[in-house]
Amino acid sequence: MSELIAFCGIDGTGKSTQAALLQSRLEASGRSTEVLWCRWDPFLARPAVRLLDHLSGRGAKATATHGSGRGSGDSRRALKRRFLSSPLLRGLWTGVMVLDYGLQVAPRLVRARRRADVVIVDRYRHDVLIDLSAGRELVQAPRILRWLLPNPDLILVLDLDEEIALARKTDSLDLTYLKERRRLYRELSLSPGAVLIDASDSTDMVGESVLRVISSHTTTHGGINGQAAHHSRD
Predict the structure, then answer these.
(1) Domains plus CATH for the chain?
(2) Is 186's pLDDT higher than 90?
């Protein structure tokens, strides 16, 4: 079975850029590599998401200023927290969201792992859990999600100041949205198999940090890629 590397982090940290860069470096060292973009695209939960967006006025979000932290973002968070304050509704929402995401991603992941030596996922199940956890402590992955989507060999959590991230990724909801999630991603980085990487440097410098982490992981745990470790010293 191929090895699995997950890039996680708030919007604007450069996950897609680093995933593509790592793919090119691994392939240059002789490893077949595939990148999957795994952001949650609601299907089963789409009616509920659209209703929440409509009630919060998120469709008019483009008029909000970057650093306001107000407007549709506040309305949406308030509605979501009120909705999830009911244990029954929280359980239903969690179940639908987990199944929606897991059933979309799992078949693509299985196929990719059959084809490639290394599969890189741009976002993964951890990002869904952080969406579920916003405004409270990080929730643990339900058993069915762990069954559908196995643990990665390595979780690379890209970390960046939320104001810089918002300037890079202007379609993020607002600063409050990014701050809540950055806190949770930093908590995720303390989990086994996860590493926090400073994403404030240039693309190439962050890429070198990624290779150093992979090299260290290879030395400690084996696998992933001795050739990538060699490449990082060239």
Answers:
(1) 3-233 (3.40.50.300)
(2) yes
